[in-house]
Amino acid sequence: MARNPERRTALLDAAIEVLADEGARGLTFRAVDARAGVPTGTSSNYFRDRDQVLSQVADRIFVRLTPEPGVIDTALLPPPSRPLVVELMKQLAQRLAAERTCYLGLFELRLEAARRPELRTQLTKVLRADLDENVRLHLDSGMPGDADTVRLLYFALTGLLFDHFTVPGLHGDRDLDELIETVVNRVVPER
């Protein structure tokens, strides 16, 4: 297996683009090589099989979706409140919308995980760690609500973004920020 970490990262980013554009069925070594602009056969030098690509794509997506160091600490400086939760959820949605390809790739991985137990195990591990970190941050910062509040916000944002990316006209003229505000105001208790 080749050991160039920059090339491996470029191949994983290309795989994310293939997933987002063509779905999991379109994810082949040849498609990744073409998207990355490298010679045919390059991906097979970095990954033993398609399952390994899928597994490593999950990790790469979360690296790309993780905010820069200090962003979360700065966002949590104001006093904990429902309006702050609204603002944080809007910022999160903006960050995820800016990485549309990653988020669509993640949806494709979720669907593929329904058919592949090994991928399901890996994806569950990555998603659980992310959700646990969100619960920890919420509770440690003193935001209103409990762990179930965070889970409900997670469910709602996942669904809202799925709609936003796949059927954006579903909610008529209501934009994403307005929908997020409605969700937070209904889910997060007042202090």
UniProtKB/TrEMBL annotation:
Name of the protein: TetR family transcriptional regulator
Record key words, sorted: DNA-binding
UniProt KW NADP keyword: no
Residue ranges: DNA binding: 28-47
Membrane spanning stretches: none
Entry annotated with the keyword Nucleotide-binding: no
Domain HTH tetR-type: 5-65
